[in-house]
Amino acid sequence: MMAGSGVSRREVLAGIAAGAAAGMFGSLSSAKAAVSEMVWATWDSNGHPEYIAAFEAQTGVKVKLSYLSSEDAQFAALKTGTASDWDMINPSLNGSWRYIKAGLLEEIDMAKIPNAAKMYDVFKTTPKVLDASGKQFAVPYLWGLNPIVYRKDKFESEPDYTTLFNEKYKGQLAMRDYALESIGIAGLVAGVPRDKVFLMETK
């Protein structure tokens, strides 16, 4: 997309800001028969009690939470074996490839996850959770982390990511200090083709 033409949150997040859930023990639907307890390594914003309670009630499986400090720390813990008790993790969609390449995940049987049929099409078709042979190791579930929050009395129309580069708002805007989104957003606004931006982000 050319600079100045407006880059929507939906477009950029569809490719670079999705999250994924990856299981080291297989599909969740088999959890009831396989285990009585599972350990989920996740971010503190994801482990809401209402989510956990519903899962536990449906499956009879007790969920223990292990909170993450960073993506790199999560990968290192798995790589060194210090997180051998984890059953499910939350890698970023663009970071899933290194877990798959390192052989840290088990293949997921999507036939045992019926709700997968309700996912966005872009989540169903992304190759970012597959290995070279097409086996799937993670499930995208999160659309994005960077909503645009703004005051309607300060904007004549709904802002998009080109607004971040508008001199009119210099010193008045902020965004999360995270290279994954920052590089992708800047690239799209500058006119770098979308497939090139996303390829750069996954390398």
Automatic annotation (TrEMBL):
Q: Which UniProt keywords apply?
A: Periplasm, Signal, Transport
Kindly list the places in or outside the cell where this protein is found, as annotated in its UniProt entry.
Answer: Periplasm
One Pfam match, given by its short name, reads SBP_bac_8
- Is Signal found in the keyword set? yes
Coiled-coil residue spans: none
Main subcellular location of this protein, as a coarse class: periplasm
Name recorded for this polypeptide: Extracellular solute-binding protein
Originating organism: Rhizobium brockwellii
